[in-house]
Amino acid sequence: MSTLTKLTFSLLLISITAEKAVASETLLQEGKVWNYVLHYVTQDFQFMTCESQTWIDGDTIIDGRPCYRVCTTDCYESGAEQSVRYMYEEEGRVYQMASHSTIILYDFSLDETTGLTDDILHSGWCPEDCQVSKTDTVFVKGHYRKRIHFSWADWCWVEGIGSTANLNQPFGNPVSDGKRYEFVSCYMDGACLFEKDDFNAPGVTDGIHNSYLPMLQDGKKWVTTIDTYSYTHYIEGDTLIGGNTWKKVYANNYDQPVFSYYGAIRQEGEMVYGIAAEQDEPLLLYDFGLNVGDILYWVEKQLPGGKPKIYYISKSAVLGVGHKITVEDIDTIQVNGQELRRITLKSMYIIKAPPTSSGSATAFNPYYVWVEGIGCEGGLFVSGRKIKDDCELYCMMNDSVIFEYEDFHLPGVTDGIQKYGQAVSQEGEIYDLQGRRLQAAPAKGLYIRGGKKYLVR
Q: pTM of the entire structure?
């Protein structure tokens, strides 16, 4: 593609994106590959199977619209056959440019209350009485994805992946074609995103994803002890800042009995923001909507008056003060009968503590842990801080303990591992998070044993 064409494509794409926000995870992306098994019938009525692959091969402009080239190769016994289609995506809908018209292949905004329109029904072979029977969410390999079930032949779509049939035929091929595609896997830049069995993964409960567990409630208290000192944050009452309602947070000053106004905190969906007293800049403390592999930066800020530091996160590097971390793992733990989402983050740098009395330096643990509804190991306002092994934290609600420090490192529930497509081992066998068998548990880090995750600190 020429430089001018690339520039035109980029400007058009920016224009379209600015006008309408995409509601679902993107399906069409450079570097994405779909693998299938093709079942077909030969001219002499022999039933055969072969491999088939679909991939995105660059982009182009058709009738003034930026489109992706979607290539498919069917490896028949008699030789390979390749076809090319042109598609684009807008507001959760995926369109295919035909010779005289535009076809809607997918519409990920569908739910039980919206019927299939004629333009979707006519995009491939589909009975007229086929309708959406159910929508839910699956959590696979660190990503939440909307899933749409249909009332015919166990068909379903998953956003960012496509259908159980073929990317180009969301409802399968007409029977007259004498062939049927069977989804095997989908990869992005060589990393597996989704496999056949993931279409049947257990749906994620509303309490974990669609309705994020609230963190900010009056009467909630975080008590943190590190070394020989402790401090407490608690929530009491509301305040109005910038036209929005924020929860007021009070804290003591390292073992002092007197509490004073520390700042305000506000929850917006899966985001939690904080504003320290005498400051006017909202800071992002937590984002429970992160996915595995996401990168962010942990920053500490000294507050005036000797108050405990505030630790926040940034989605972009902060020159001179940003500490780079990545989302290593996402799973679920069960505490007091309630399932809580846990995010494990890992430092991208190796930082060592000052030399001990013996003269040797000790490496800090590179892992951080967040739990929804609770926060970080160090307390409410320390979203990324490394906490020493002798740290203790209690989270209380109306003076009843609802979470303890040890709960951050409970084994993940087995269902959570299966949802992410990770290996579930037999008793005694040890695996890393990529499913590779290990001879022994690692000295530090995450591993899987007996179908459960363990974190060695």
A: 0.47
Instruction: Compute the distance between CA of residue 223 and CA of residue 231 in angstroms, rounded to an integer.
Output: 6
Query: What confidence tens digit (pLDDT) does each residue in 315-328 have?
Result: 776 555 557 888 88
Calculate the dihedral angle through the C-alpha atoms of 197, 203, 209, 212, rounding to the nearest 10 degrees. Answer: -160
pLDDT in tens, 363-412: 455 778 899 889 888 777 765 554 455 667 788 888 788 888 888 888 88
CA distance 329 to 315: 18
Distance of CA 270 to the CA centre of its chain: 12
